[in-house]
Amino acid sequence: MNRRTTTLVMIPVMLCCSHLSAAGKPLKVYILAGQSNMEGHAKVETFDYIGDDPKTAPLLKQMRGSNGKPRVCERVWISYLTGSPDRGTLGEGFGKLTAGYGARNNPAEDGGKIGPEFTFGLTMEKAYDGSILIIKTAWGGKSLNTDFRPPSAGRYELPQMTKDIWARHPEGAHGIPSEKDREKWWKEKEEKTGRYYRLMVGHVKKVLANPKRVVPTYDPKAGYEIAGFVWFQGWNDMCDSQTYPDGNRSPDGFRHYTELMAHFIRDVRRDLNAPAMRFVIGTLGVHGDKAKGRIANLRPAMAAPADMNEFKGNVAAVHTGQFWDHEMAAMEPKLSDLNRLKDSAHVITKEGVMEKRAPGTPDWQPVGKPAPEERTWRYTTFDPQNEKDVMHNKRERKRFRDVTLPAGLEGWYKPGFDDSKWKSGRAPIGKGVWPYPKNTRDVTVKNVSDWGAGEFILMRTTFEVDNLDYEQFRLSILSRQGFHVYLNGHKIHTYIWWKDAPYYRSIVLEPRHVAHLKKGVNILAAYSNVHYGRAQEPYASIDLAIEGLPADARKYVNSSEYMRKRMDTVFTRREQKLLNGASNAAFHYMGSGKMMAQIGKALAEALIELEKR
Q1: Where are the domains of the chain?
Q2: 102, 373, 408, 543: which could join 114 in a potential S-S bond, CB 3.0 to 4.6 Å?
């Protein structure tokens, strides 16, 4: 039974750690639903940035306890349904509200991230002295027109403009199935339609059938009130030019989203037996007030139900673009640099060479002599010998592949192989210009030895080891394309391909690979190939070495001081602050705790305002 109350007690200073009794108060239930931004990709590590702004610093104080860790609520609980039903990972996480109920790889485990739910719960608890339950259902990449399609909206239908386009392309085209595939397309569409709406409603009903399972202090005599619903979604509908073919021209191109949203509000109220349930819509805020095109056009369509006569006074829209951090967003191109820095053994300096580490500083050390930059490599390059190995499309980025070797190169990676007739030189060995992407750092790799004419390279070097007393070993490798790496005749690593900019990737070696490293003379060998850029000009650079981590350096290498000094080689201190406030791509609000915390608070305040009415 759904027990409701009409009185809202305002407690303006109560924080989430309050131990005041909630006896006799109905359990307030708030439902949060949507796609990836409702999941939440803001890492806990971005919280410090919230405190750098005087306007948001007080919010950070609410988000953290006296021990400096994310606050754990005593009177707010959460049940969170997420994961993939297709991959068998659909599941629930529940417990007292704290950070970690953002996007999760495992629904039952703390994901180290927040969505709007954290500050939403903190804000709600300041306004109500009873117990609160948040039921959250969110999945990335889901649309309102299909995945969350409400029942009263009927079956999915293509708009007439799209039907006309399909009719002109019976053979199919980009995004358009051919006539022979359309029956299958429609069958799959029917299966997807409304699926996540049903999962959402089903989970809410399951939780409310036994609230005590999630909220141990639940008082059945006091009952519960479904006090509000928050919807935060939009990206997939914004991108869907098939459903909204005119969305790029004007806001009117998304009027069908408004219709669907109105159906959604009516249906969840009906299906949850909560006809007066207050409803808040968080509009898509990516790019803030600078948004253009489809993002800008979708926003008014998302907010429009709040102005419909039937919803006046109990539906509100929150424009989340007001929380977009433009200064942080301007740093987005450098996020990839930050990720590379964290993942790298060495970065490339502005001079185009490997960074120099401060002498005497505890760090990873090159294993063996001579030093990597002084080693002589023997190498040979060649083109594919057989037609089946030739790749004619030079724009194809995934060029790394195994090909038939020229005669006489069998066993080229083994210790006894005779490489005396190969070229010799120091690494990096390369050709052409390998630049960083635009808008990041203005550097290019400085090659030492010329690659030659062939597409593929085989390379070998020797180094002598007298000390193997290290806690860990890693491969430090610079390579634009994929590679095979061999140590003393044994393959120790394969990396098929990745799209990346120049840096020395750090790959920690497994014990079974380290077992091939020995005292005395060692042979390190590699196989790789060139890349073709947009101008279809080939370029390549490759260099590699094995490094060890001494026991006395481990603690320092894992410290924040070590990372800060590394960051100083690439970023200014102001840039570091901005980058530490972000953790991923822009459509997830940069994975920013600052943006997400403000959004959660604003969504709660909008519901509180509706409750006052």
Answers
A1: 27-156+193-331+584-612, 344-555
A2: 102
